[in-house]
Amino acid sequence: MVTNSCFLFPGQGAQYPGMGLDLLSPSPAAKEVFDTASAILGVDIIRLIGDSDGETLKKTDISQPAISAASLAAAAFLKERGISPGACAGFSLGEYPALACAGVIGLEDCFRLTKERGRAMQAAVDRILKDGPEAPPGMAAILGLPPEDLTARIGEWKKEGLPAGDLYTANINSPKQVVVSGTAAALEDATARFKDAGARRVIRLQVAGPFHSPLMKGAAEAFAPVLEETVFTDPGIPFFSNVTGGPVHTGKELKELALRQIVEGVKWTGEEAAIAALRPGAVLETGPGRVLQGLWHETGTGIPAYGAGTLEEILNCIKELS
């Protein structure tokens, strides 16, 4: 049986109505996670996930705790069936359920933090909109351009004083997939420029704001006091950071990086390389969606990646890892 799997927790954009609810009936541990989330959030998270449409779940203050609940329910079900992580990492928001899974923060603190983080980030987006733009800021995935080339081009456009001055490299997902954050005007201007530069596709993401960029400075300032009062302990298993792209060994550093992560990019390719160096038996995308599996397959490591967010996927994992 594979016993050294790495759990990867997805970020915003992975949400969908009903996510994780198929785990409730077969898993008391998953039900307990949802009940804890409801108690901390002051809302019936099961009803919220079950009754909300995609547009509602896209709101940052809703999607962050909801994805965390679905992801940690999946982790609880896996552990209930004898599959525990040998390492943890999370993409953006996913770092918070990863922190809980690795024992750095408690389950209650995870939901409290994601609630307040989502609230602070949504408020920052609302302020940006209030200040004038008619269209919302956001993020876009650029496919087909190397990260170094893309970042250099953004720097050139900023020097020219173009609308792309409000554009930032946010997530380095793979050697040929980079996500940028920016205002609506900057994203619109950059779309044509990236295509002219050879990008295969430019895809607007289903998120509510320009995350992992300096445009979210107000969110970091609002979230800092909430984060400061939370206890972070040293991880009990290997843990990897979005900000550094490598392993982190202390709770103190993880707390500092959690704040920086709001305004800095996600070095996901660095994390994947560091995880692969551990030679885990498999990586499991523990939560909704399949994005992280796809990115992992692009690494070419030969280490298998499985979905572990639905009942069907988890039962398949149990079979494959046995």
Describe the fold and architecture:
- The chain is an alpha/beta fold and 322 residues long.
- The protein folds into 2 domains: 6-127 and 214-321, Malonyl-Coenzyme A Acyl Carrier Protein, domain 2; 137-204, Malonyl-CoA ACP transacylase, ACP-binding (Alpha-Beta Plaits), CATH 3.30.70.250.
- Helix content is 48%, strand content 14%.
- It contains 13 helices and 11 strands.
- The strands form 3 sheets. The chain has a 5-stranded mixed beta sheet. A 4-stranded parallel beta sheet has the order 2-1-10-11, with helices on both faces. It has a two-stranded antiparallel sheet with strand order 7-8.
- Strand 7 and strand 8 form a beta hairpin.
- The longest helix has 24 residues, at 107-130.
- The radius of gyration is 19 Å and the shape is globular.
- The N and C termini lie close together (4 Å).
